[in-house]
Amino acid sequence: MDKRFLALLAAVGATTIYGLNHTIMKVIMPDYIGPYGLVLLRVITASFLFFLCSFFFPKEKIDPKDYFRILAATAFGMCLNMVFFIKGLSLSTPINSSVIITIMPIIVLLLSAIFLKEKITSLKIMGIIFGFLGALTLVLYGNSFIKNAPNIPLGNAMMLINAFSYGAYLVIIKPITGKYHVITLMKWMFPLGILMNLPFGYTELTAVDWTALPWEGIWRIGFVLFFTTFLAYLLNMYALKEVPPTTIGVLTYVQPIIAILYASFTGNDQMDEVKTLATALVFVGVYLVTKRVKV
To answer: What's the predicted TM-score (pTM) here?
Structure first.
């Protein structure tokens, strides 16, 4: 089977997981575990799983000149990205988070233009403007549905920072995804993520009463640990070996479709006029940013 097709399939799989995750993860906090404790638990679990996987793959030595890139990618992808997303989600709603994350292709484009010298056309500039208008609409006005959402504007702003962080992670890690195996990179990055997240999450993680967790809390935490953290990162890293980061970013527009359907079906969120307008602005922005112009 064509490698590019498999890479796209992997990226779609990761996007589907992320779309479901907005609601599944939201219900966990704060009744079962605090947001920072969940981040720390995610990186600990992923470190263990990728360490086990490494025994089945050839050992690779990291070039010293790549140490800083791996450290920077870890800071953005396994620390800032996770911390701002989970804390923001705990304050806001699943649909808000899924819409805000779709501006990532725009962020990836901006960062790619700066660091990878990707050209920005006037059409893409219009897309950037529409996308940020949509995100800004949600941050300022997307607070009409309140269910386990104590501070929606702050949560939306934090998830906007999350989108920047994950976009930076994709751009930073891309140059070395073809140099090392996915397992090698993950085996290095997630343990570094433990060290970075330990000061934030230690207290919340150790406060969890694991013996008192109901089945609902167990399966949701299990989904976040295995599918969202381990499998989704693995699928995205595999996809990055064959397709550019902008392509991965584009597929995030599928997330709100999945998230809106699942959140509405489960009663954890609902669409309204503001969210509809914000979603439309973001989608128009993503379309303009990713549209190919014939020369």
So the answer is: 0.77
